[in-house]
Design brief:
Elements: E1 4-11, H1 16-24, E2 39-43, E3 46-54, H2 55-65, E4 71-72, H3 75-100
Antiparallel strand pairs: 1-3, 1-4, 2-3
Length: 101
């Protein structure tokens, strides 16, 4: 079984367009960002990238993120981002329950 991990990376806000370009590049490659559906979050004038993937993907992703000055977020920021993503997913799932329930 593949072990999935959740991580958040802080990206230089000035590099937002470059980040978007990086995320859109080569969507059919085996190790592309498109395959893991990362999410961008802007919180308190900071730009974060949330990724849920296997360990092998992170090795490739971290090299690519260096081009946009991306570094793994501080532990407290990473926890905040991961919790925010989980809350949004739960809210979305609850909304579908109301539609299809």
């Amino acid at each position: 079984m593949i072990s999935m991990e959740e991580r958040a990376y802080e990206i230089d806000p000035k590099k937002k367009q470059e980040l978007n370009d990086l995320l859109a590049a080569d969507p059919y490659a085996p190790m592309s960002f498109a395959r893991v559906a990362p999410q961008i979050k802007e919180i308190e004038d900071k730009l974060f990238l949330y990724i849920k993937a296997d360990i092998e993907f992170f090795k490739v992703a971290e090299e690519k993120l260096k081009t946009v000055n991306g570094n793994r977020a501080k532990k407290e920021d990473e926890e905040k981002i991961v919790n925010k993503i989980h809350d949004e997913e739960e809210a979305a799932a609850g909304g579908f329950g109301g539609i299809f329930g």
